[in-house]
Design goal:
Number of domains: 1
Largest sheet: 3 strands, antiparallel
Order of helices and strands: EEEHHH
Number of strands: 3
Strand order of the largest sheet: 1-2-3
CATH topology: Arc Repressor Mutant, subunit A
Oligomer: single chain
Helix content: 40-55%
Length: about 80
């Protein structure tokens, strides 16, 4: 099921994690690699992705970050 443009969630694929449409590559893997300093070109080559698929992962992460309230403790 496509839950966001270019992002699907299938219970039997990657344990139901959000994945790039048409792949078994989950969004977290793409973000982990970007966060570790890997270039977009390296990620494209290592996982067989397109530039647009990586952009979809980043857009989805931004969407989630905007809509999930932060877990912040209230200071006493």
């Amino acid at each position: 099921m496509e839950v966001f443009p270019g992002i699907t969630i299938e219970p039997r694929v990657r344990f139901g994690k959000p994945c790039l449409k048409g792949t078994r590559v989950d969004v977290a893997t793409v973000l982990d690699n970007l966060g570790a300093g890997e270039s977009w070109e390296t990620i494209e080559q290592e996982f067989g992705l397109t530039h647009e698929q990586i952009r979809a992962a980043v857009r989805y992460a931004a969407h989630v970050a905007r809509h999930v309230p932060p877990a912040v403790e209230v200071a006493a």
